[in-house]
Amino acid sequence: MRLIPFALLMLCGAVQAAPEAVSLEQAGVLYEQHCQSCHGANRLGGAGPALLPESLSRIKPDEARAVIHNGRPASQMAAFGDRLNPAQIDALVSYLYQPAATPPTWSDADIRASHRILTDVDTLPNTPQHNADPLNLFVVVEAGNHHVRVLDGDRFEELANFQSHFALHGGPKFSPDGRFVYFASRDGWISVYDLHNLTMIAEVRAGLNTRNLAVSNDGRWVLVGNYLPGNLVLLDARDLSLVKHIPTLGADGTQSRVSAVYTAPPRDSFVVALKDVKEAWEISYAGKPDFQPRRIEAADFLDDFSFTPDYRYLLATSRKALGGQVIDLDTGKAVTDIPLPGMPHLGSGIYWKRGGNWVFATPNVSKGLISVLDLQSWKLIKEIPTEGPGFFMRSHLNSPYAWTDVFFGPNNDAVHLIDKQTLEVAHTLRPMPGKNAAHVEFTNDGRYALLSVWDTDGALIVYDAKTLKEIKRIPMNKPSGKYNVGNKIEYAEGTSH
Ligand code: DHE
Which of 165, 438, 473, 489 satisfies CB 3.0 to 4.6 Å to 185 for a cystine? Predict the structure, then answer.
């Protein structure tokens, strides 16, 4: 096949011959000509994001096609519709969704070469250099323009606003004193930012496709869970220098991706769920750790998970019929399956006391219902119907309501407030009708709830959590998650891990 030169296309003017098919091999050449300078050799990423199938899994080919043709507003991604014909764009899209001919690798040397110290932390004051309450700051991820804003949680005013790596995902994690916040991007970039001095300290690329990170309860270690390459990467929390990578091989030697990693503070350990082998791992960081995993056999492959309030049990999403399973971290045994057929988003699940008992509630991403479990009997005690499948859930010890979004479907502008005792929907808010409302976080005292309107012309809306009156609306471009420092470092009831 012959590529039609651009000049010839122009000469042809209105005469539009049907473009000839373009082979994948030719698409590879087009990639080198047009894409590689930003997206990197072998599609590993550069100034622009990685374009590996793993990195593109959330984007439908039609969207990728449109982005190549039209560019992406408010980003460096230019429009190529005037340089590439539809057949070339189609072939390029197919090429991007193909696995690389040689599987990409990311070695310790690559990790070390990507490491950058941006500020010498030893030269900085170790007290807050702003007048806001350091335990009531909010870190807000503005996904639409890949920025992070730091807000004073008393006045709801901005203290800092800085560019992040492309596509931060998951909740940022904090050092135990709340001074440092750690971010992970889907492309594997880990950054640490100093909230006392409002400055970035260091960054490193720990993998090519990352799930999430956890910070040890003693503030010394950061553990990153990767899909690509499937492994764990241990970093020194002080400056993100590489300590070591931990291969995630199952007991039978099978290589696995990491579904999620969290810290379990009372256990002084990281807990890891593996995606391709039926194992959960506990990695102790107590004393002088050797970071050898304790393998716990699971009854199924595990996805995201959550803990009971005492961190003894792990509630994990499993692919089997019932949808969830409970693992006892003390005995190392799978306890029971739990009926969660709506694809629960367990990382967003929260617990609270109902009467004298702990209950756990989780949204489901494929069904419009909230599943509520009794944590003593593991019985499903209620499925609360919602106006559509949801993603996030939040509450606070001082709030009578659990706030949960409708993330998918025509009613995704709605947020339900569930009465934590009656388990009925008590209120439904529509903060900006027609625009996706999602993800809530409370101030440290629980007086105010901050909600995202997840739209290019979106907003962060501050509600009085009792009267439900709107207090303030701050325009933002797709604000996704927001995190209150105090709630996060206290692992407060009602927030995510
Ligand atoms: Fe997330 C948290 C997995 C898609 C926004 N998401 C998490 C966590 C996991 C997870 C394991 C907990 C990590 C943590 O906080 O340390 N997310 C997944 C998926 O498997 C899924 C469904 C598909 C995927 O591509 O990974 C997925 N997530 C999304 C999105 O499409 C969202 C809505 C937009 C985005 O940013 O990609 C999204 N996920 C979030 C957010 C959190 C999150 C904002 C943190 C919530 C919190 O309050 O802590």
Answer: 165
Q: How many CA atoms lie within 13 A of 370 on its CB side?
A: 32
Give the position of tokens 């622009």: 48
Report whether the peptide linkage leading into residue 433 is cis, meaning its omega lies within 30 degrees of zero. Answer: no
Report how far ligand 1's centroid is from the alpha carbon of 345 (Å).
9
Check if 143 has its Cβ closer than 6 Å to any atom of ligand 1.
yes
- Spatial separation of the C-alpha atoms in residues 441 and 443, rounded to whole Å: 7
**pTM, whole model, 2 decimals?**
0.93
Residue 489's SS3 state is helix
Band (pLDDT 50/70/90 cuts) for residue 13 is very low
pLDDT digits (tens, 9 = 90+) for 279-329: 999 999 999 999 999 999 999 999 999 999 999 999 999 877 678 999 999
- The token duo for 357 is 């008992």
Tokens of 281: 């791992």
Polymer length of the chain: 497
DSSP states along 11-56: HHTT--PPPPP--HHHHHHHIIIIIHHHH-GGG--SSSPP-STTTT
496 lines ligand 1 (CB under 6 A): yes
